[in-house]
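Ticket #4471: structure export looks truncated?
Reporter: QA, pipeline team
Priority: medium

Steps to reproduce: submit the single chain below to the structure queue and open the exported record.
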Amino acid sequence: MSAVLRAQALGRKYKQRWALQNCDLDVPTGRVVGLVGPNGAGKSTLLNLASGMLTPTAGTIEVCGGGPSAGPAQLAKVGFVAQDTPTYAGLSVADHLGLGARLNPGWDDALARDRIRRLGLDPAQKAGKLSGGQRAQLALTLGIAKRPELLILDEPVAALDPLARREFMRDLMEAVADQQLSVVLSSHLVSDVERSCDYVIVLVDSRVQVAGDIDDLRATHHRLTGPRRDPATLPAGQYVISASHTDRQTTLLVRTDTPVHDPSWTVTPLSLEDIVLAYMTRPADAVRDSRPVLEVLR
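Actual output as written to the record:
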């Protein structure tokens, strides 16, 4: 698997606190990847390291074949839209495009101006007077008009209303199709990830819990419901992600590459949200599969 982003034992420490520690991660090239996990998992720190905004305290990170802050040519390969979709309140929309043109050697001015026109933004309008959705669209324009190889978005729609969020995600998908970008999108909205991404990574406590094609994840994860039994009695190849019991009944969420033939189980499919939540709420000391997590799902 070709990786557009690769981290090994990556860590970032603030004074005495590790925001990210011992993170191993491969992000496949040419995919729209959703990065999900609970608050404090290290998602924003990871993305800031990938964009060159931060430097590692430990370990290594490689993006588009080089160090994130290796120089202007390397920085030009990555577009970054930060969590608060930052813009300069005192600058006009046109000022932002001019700044983008001066700072980015691969800047596509025609693309930027066409997007602004299609969005109905007034080039003379100050960014501070734009709505939240308009500022997010301006930030996205700046990110894609530099023609990056990898576009990183950190919770770009978290503060937007549902309509603005849908419009932003639609425009993002159009840009991905037009430019054949690799994208890493951090979000706590699993519905947006399911609608827009084709690959997902679940990060909990700096560690990848599961990663793979969304269709494969849904096809290989099931809920089993049946008479109470010990999960340890399951056949080899059925990996228990979560388990709950009543006096008479057991409910398991399992991952398996083969069909479940035991007639004592009622087998039901799972949504991506069910799968993500199961991995996010696993006990910290849960035993992981013996196979490398990024090779589990083909």
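Status: closed, not a bug. The export was complete when the record was re-opened. Leaving a note from the reviewer for reference: Residues 162-179 form the longest helix (18 residues).
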